[in-house]
Amino acid sequence: MKEYAPAKINLFLDVIRKREDGYHDLGTLFQTIDAGDTVSAEPRQDGRITLCYNEPQNYPLETDLVYKAAKLLQQESGTTLGADIYLNKVMPLGAGLGGGSADAAATLRLLNQLWKLKFKFEKLEEIGAKLGADVPFLVRGGTAMAEGIGEKLTFVKPLQLNDEQYLLVATPLDSVPTKDAYAGVPKSGSDRWETFKAKCKSAGKSAIEYALANGFNGFEESVFPKHPLVEEMKNEFKRLGATSVLMSGSGASVFGVFATRKQAKAAAEELKPISRYQVVTRFFEGF
Q: What is the pTM of this model?
């Protein structure tokens, strides 16, 4: 049995305030994209969880989000079944695309079916929140407004590009440690986010146009000075004719919209020398 793990971009992302617990309150518009890893699994009767990748990993199995997701679902459900899990990893690490979180979310969906648990999305999202801030959204994907650390979700009608437009996502030859992104990030208060959220909701069928024209990522201010390759990537997107160009998440990937697939493909070719990953794709409407 297989499950697709679509990645995400942030069409809007602002850091509102730092909380007393050390975390930051965010306001973001999440959007899944049609690019991601694939998780496969076969049931085991002995309760063991095994995990293999398409390429060797240099960290302990117990720290892997896919493994953690499987063990947590096992505990929450009380099932005596286990699973042999295989992850076909294509998304880059440290890229701001939620690849690891998407894998964990896909594992929850997959094992929910494999073990015949019949948990609803809400229950899987609740479990996912214990694994990471992006996991609850990625359980069902699509388009959602998120607040808090990303766990307070309001799903909205899925946004979609027009028939001709295509999205290019590229990851520069750099990765951005989360601590780098949060160090020095401006805390802007809630006004900008509340305005964006209200106008997106009231725009109706024009919500996609409003979102693309008013995208924002507050992390760019803290990331660009320390990671100039990310800013260079954003500038290259603009030079190549992209609109709505933003860094995704806390970096390092950049995305932009092109008028046609042909233009996006040509830009991807030009960006190859300065990127470790690129994909031409569209939005994914969710599960």
A: 0.96
How would you class 225 by CB atoms within 10 Å of its CB: exposed for 0-12, middle for 13-18, buried for 19 or more? exposed
In the predicted model, residues of the chain with pLDDT beneath 70 are: none
User: What percent of the chain stands above pLDDT 90?
Assistant: 90
Quick one: CA dihedral 276, 3, 129, 81, positive or negative? negative
Q: CATH number for 166-281: choose from 3.50.50.60, 3.40.50.2300, 3.40.720.10, 3.30.70.890.
A: 3.30.70.890
- Catalytic annotation, pick one of 8, 68, 89, 234: 8
The β-bridge relationship of strands 143-148 and 24-44 is antiparallel
Identify the pLDDT of residue 55: 83
- Tell me whether residue 238 is one of the annotated catalytic residues: no
Which one is catalytic: 25, 134, 174, 180? Answer: 134
Is domain 2-155 annotated with CATH 3.30.230.10?
yes
Cβ pair 41, 1 in contact under 8 A: yes
Sequence-distant (6+) residues with CB within 8 A of 95 are: 171, 175, 248, 249, 251, 252, 253, 277
d(CA 79, CA 113): 12
Can 134 be counted among the known catalytic residues? Answer: yes
